[in-house]
Amino acid sequence: MTWSGTCRSRGFAVLAVGVTLVLVAVGIGTVIALQGTGVPVWLGWVLAVVGLVVGILGWLLSSLEARVDSQRFVVAFGPVGWPRRTIRIVDLREASAIVVEPREWGGWGYRWIPWARASAAVIRRGPGIELVLADGRRFAVTVNDAVAGAQATSAAIDAARR
Q: Is 124 within 8 Å of 7 (Cβ atoms)?
């Protein structure tokens, strides 16, 4: 059985665009303001470039796709599928549908919580899938149609055990 689900965060994308516009505007404003003063204008250009990088990263991380097949569970961010997390089905103990609260998983984005032996791909509050790995670590991902995703993952885990 195969399944795939997506999740998009309009708020995350809007925030990234807003931060980008502010940083680029301040950077270009700095370049203009420093023209002819004898002060190096490279700082303004650096700020503008940082703004563009923040915007691109924010856009890449504002959506994700989760896929499960008989061999693996994969979470891939953005339109290019990077960054990506792959977990082999044989390394999973169980899967369940949950309501993901970002504050319980360390906030938004790809989170690693070493003291809880957990990690998560969280781009919004709401339905998600929680995986328990064979070694007890946990992984959560926000995704639409989490119930069907958890059922498909559980079916793949059961099939791998047989």
A: yes
Q: What are phi and psi of 66, to 5 degrees?
A: -110, 135
Selection from 122, 129, 150, 139 nearest residue 9 by Cα: 122
Separation CA 162–CA 152 (nearest Å)? 16
Give tens-digit pLDDT for 105-117: 999 888 999 999 9
State the Cα–Cα distance between residues 150 and 161, nearest whole angstrom. Answer: 17
Q: Give the separation between CA 31 and CA 46, rounded to whole angstroms.
A: 10
- For 58-108, the pLDDT digits (tens) are 888 899 999 999 999 999 998 889 889 999 999 999 999 999 999 999 998
The Cα 69–Cα 49 span in angstroms is: 40
